C-alpha cells in the first residue's frame, strides 16, 4: 500500500498517535554524524560490490539488488512527511530522489540502526549553487568532500542527516500508516536488521 502524505494520513490515525508522530519528526536532523561504525553480518552473507539498494518511493518498497535482479524486498517503508522529490532545504520534509552512497553506519542509533547517505550529493550541490541557495564556498566544501570520498557537510542550508533507519522504540502503527520522517527512509526494526546484512559504507543507493 502506497502511503499518502502526512496531511492525508491524518484521517487514518488520531489523538495519541499524532503526539508520537510530532516527536518523531526530528529523526533525521538532530543527531550528529558519528564516527563510521560498521555492523556485524551473518557469516553466510557476503557483501558484494555489485549489491545496491533501490528505494521505490511510488510502491513504498526497498529492494536489495544485484545487477538488475532483486535479492530481497522490504515492504511498507515510510518516507519524509512531504513525500519524495527534489529536496531544496533543511526542514522541507522531502526524501531526496537521486543516487547516493552509504556514508556511515551507526548501530547505536535511537532508531535501532542508522545508515547515513552522502546527501547532499554533487547534483544537489550544483543545482543549489546555480539557483543561489548556497554560495561558492559551500559548494566547494561539498564537492571536495565527495571527491575525497568523505561525507559532505551535513549542516548546510540543503539539510543533512538523511539516511535509512528503523523505528527504535516508536509506534509500529504510526510507521505503517504515515510518511513520518524529516526526509529519511524508515523500515521497521526487524527489516533494518535484515537490511544491515547487505549494506556497508560505500553501498550505492538509488531513490526513485
Short précis:
This protein has 208 residues and is α/β, with parallel strands linked by helices. The protein has 2 domains: 163 residues, L,D-transpeptidase catalytic domain-like; 28 residues, no CATH class.
Word description of this protein:
- By secondary structure, this protein is α/β, with parallel strands linked by helices.
- Helix content is 23%, strand content 22%.
- The chain has 2 domains: 6-119 and 159-207, L,D-transpeptidase catalytic domain-like, CATH 2.40.440; 122-149, no CATH class.
- It has helices at residues 6-9, 16-24, 122-130, 136-147, 172-177, 189-196; strands spanning 51-56, 61-66, 69-75, 84-85, 95-96, 98-106, 114-117, 163-165, 185-186, 204-207.
- α3 packs antiparallel against α4 (136-147).
- The two termini are 17 Å apart.
- The relative contact order is 0.26.
- Residues 5-20 and 29-44 have low confidence and may be disordered.
Radius of gyration: 16 Å
CATH architecture of the largest domain: Beta Barrel
Please list the strands of the largest sheet in the order they lie side by side: 3-2-1-10-6-7-8-9
Give a short account of the largest sheet.
8 strands, mixed
Q: Share of helix among residues?
A: 10-25%
- Give the N-terminus to C-terminus distance in angstroms: 17 Å
Order of helices and strands: HHEEEEEEEHHEHEHE
Can you identify the CATH class of the largest domain? Mainly Beta
How many domains would you count in the coordinates? 2
CATH homologous superfamily title of the largest domain: L,D-transpeptidase catalytic domain-like
The CATH topology assignment of the largest domain is: L,D-transpeptidase catalytic domain-like
Percentage of residues in strands: 15-25%
- Secondary structure: number of strands: 10
How many helices? The count is: 6
Low-confidence stretches: 5-20, 29-44
